[in-house]
């Protein structure tokens, strides 16, 4: 082998002692990640534009770059609008109303939805009290003198009747707590699922794509109640509110 043909291997280590680093190297000597924007020069002789910014705009045609003030100016609210907002806050303190927002419509549920809980509660109390008053006849007819007397059974039935009445009232309260509000900016739906379960949904008027109501059957037409349906754009979320009075 000719020793002159043998060339010394170049060192794989970068010589950074003289401070000559390539464009894609940092001060540690390792190559950093680069993009189409960062590989552009900082300036071009004879031109007064930034090549990196121009490259960024060219690669982002669907983006709009805008500045935002550190302290944005507040919208002017007329005295009339402010008065309506303050009155709405007094009438509906549980609603999260933005500045200048007021309630236009307060839609409540129709009382027809209370028929089921009320009839069920009253029927249960009537059946229980009927059994209590029939109890003396039953024990005298069959000669069961060893059973508790009428007074004991009557006193035991009173707490049960109170519990039935309490549950009936809670069902009616939860039903009537479901409300639907239309404001000048959004639609707010108050959802009460239980005694300690409350949920609020707010949809901007600009996000609503379709609004409709529905009445089915003779009973809904005669009593004038039905359901409201709202659908939003984008994910197409659907909001429904049932037993609406005068939809």
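^ Assign residues to that structure.
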């Amino acid at each position: 082998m000719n020793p002159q043909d043998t060339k010394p291997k170049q060192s794989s280590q970068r010589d950074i002692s003289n401070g000559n680093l390539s464009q894609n190297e940092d001060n540690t000597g390792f190559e950093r990640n680069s993009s189409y924007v960062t590989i552009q020069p900082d300036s071009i002789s004879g031109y007064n534009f930034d090549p990196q910014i121009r490259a960024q705009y060219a690669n982002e045609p669907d983006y709009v770059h805008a500045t935002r003030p550190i302290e944005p100016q507040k919208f002017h609210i007329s005295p009339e609008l402010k008065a309506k907002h303050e009155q709405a806050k007094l009438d509906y303190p549980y609603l999260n109303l933005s500045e200048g927002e007021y309630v236009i419509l307060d839609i409540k549920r129709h009382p027809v939805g209370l028929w089921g809980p009320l009839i069920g509660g009253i029927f249960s109390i009537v059946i229980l009290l009927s059994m209590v008053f029939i109890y003396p006849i039953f024990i005298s007819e069959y000669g069961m003198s060893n059973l508790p007397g009428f007074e004991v059974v009557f006193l035991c039935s009173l707490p049960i009747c109170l519990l039935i009445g309490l549950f009936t009232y809670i069902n009616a309260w939860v039903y009537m707590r479901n409300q639907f509000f239309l404001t000048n900016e959004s639609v707010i739906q108050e959802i009460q699922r239980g005694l300690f379960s409350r949920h609020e949904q707010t949809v901007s008027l600009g996000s609503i794509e379709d609004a409709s109501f529905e009445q089915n059957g003779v009973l809904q037409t005669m009593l004038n109640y039905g359901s409201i349906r709202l659908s939003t754009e984008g994910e197409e979320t659907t909001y429904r509110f049932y037993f609406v009075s005068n939809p």
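Residues 115-142 form the longest helix (28 residues).
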